[in-house]
Structure formats: C-alpha cells, structure tokens
Specification:
With about 200 residues, the chain is mainly alpha-helical. The chain has one domain: Phosphatidic acid phosphatase type 2/haloperoxidase (Vanadium-containing Chloroperoxidase, domain 1), CATH 1.20.144. It is about 65% helix and about 0% strand. Helix 3 runs antiparallel to helix 6 and helix 4 (about 70-95) packs antiparallel against helix 5. The longest helix is centred in the N-terminal third of the chain and has 27 residues, at about 40-65. The chain is elongated.
C-alpha cells in the first residue's frame, strides 16, 4: 500500500482509511516507519517506553518545591489521567488509523487496534506541562517536562505509532486541559508558589 493509496481512500481494517496528504508527507520526511535507521529507532523506542516515568519524576520534583506538594501532584495526576481517558475515548470514536495499521511501519511499540488521533501520550504529557506552568510558572523542571514531551512526540511518530497530526492534536488538547484544569483547581490548593 502506498501513500497515494491511503490518500485515495483504499478500504482497510479502518474502513475508508484516510489520512491527510500533509500527515503522509510529514511521516515520510521524518524517516520513520520502514525507513527507520537502527540507532534513531532504538533511541525512539527507549524514549517512547521510558519518558512517562521520567516525566513522573520531574512532576514530583516540581510539585515538591511548592507549598502544597501532595495536593499539587495529586491534582496534576488526576488531570492527566482524566485527559488521557477522554483522549482514548476520542481516539476510539474517531478511529483514525495509525501508520502501522496502514502498512507504513512495523508495530514497534506493540500498540493495539485503537485509533491514533489524538495521541494519548501527547495528551497526558502536555496536560502535565500546562498544569505545571499554571502552578509554578517557567522553571528548569518545567523546561525538562516540555523537552520530554517533545521528545516523546517525535519518538512515537518515528516508531510508527502515530502520525504527526495525532501528536499535535494531543499537545494542543493536553495543554488546554492541563492549563484550564489547574487554573480551576488552584484556588482550592494551599498557596502553591514555586520556591525554585
């Protein structure tokens, strides 16, 4: 199956499997999928599998430096979990195929059959970034969270788990969810200003 076939709605497991021409070109330009090189692919798999744990460490460190560490961390984790759950429901309903569903990549990350738009990893990680921004503003730990989020987005596209628009949608929706959710919860937290 070629990108032209996909753009022309060749039926598959996802019915009319249509992805935008931009998504197909961007995915091909990133060099992932079947064209992935060994070293970047290993890096992408390592990042895709380990970045959530690293982000949790950054989150705990960042909230530890606030006046209400346990409450802040709990609120952010609940926001991220709810955002990820909603994103998975949206992906199931939307049913947008992932690159490996369409034969453009091996299933390197052993993902299931659920659609890929929006990326739930991008959603939850960007939600944490948005919440940390509202909670404590820019800091070295916030920058680390952003870098992990960006690296994970690249890794999941390179490994064939998502198209670029899946990740961009996840980032946008996640930032909005985290920022708005934390802004709504902040008045109920003890004075939560960063000291670092």
């Amino acid at each position: 199956m070629t990108p032209a076939d996909l753009h022309n709605n060749v039926p598959g497991a996802f019915g009319q499997a249509r992805r935008s021409a931009w998504d197909l070109r961007a995915f091909a330009r990133l060099g992932g999928g079947h064209a992935a090189r060994t070293l970047p692919l290993h890096a992408a798999l390592l990042i895709a599998r380990g970045s959530s744990g690293l982000l949790l460490i950054v989150l705990l460190l960042a909230t530890w430096l606030t006046a209400a560490p346990l409450a802040s961390a709990t609120v952010i984790l609940l926001l991220a979990g709810a955002t990820q759950y909603a994103g998975k429901r949206l992906a199931h309903r939307h049913g947008a195929p992932r690159p490996y569903h369409l034969g453009l990549s091996p299933n390197h990350l052993q993902q299931g059959a659920r659609g890929g738009w929006p990326s739930s990893h991008a959603l939850s990680m960007a939600c944490v970034c948005g919440a940390l921004w509202v909670l404590a503003g820019p800091s070295a730990l916030w920058a680390a969270a952003v870098l992990l989020t960006l690296a994970t987005g690249w890794a999941r596209v390179y490994a064939g788990a998502h198209f670029p628009s899946d990740v961009f949608a996840g980032w946008g929706l996640g930032l909005a969810s985290g920022s708005l959710g934390m802004a709504l919860c902040l008045p109920w937290l003890p004075t939560a200003t960063a000291i670092a």
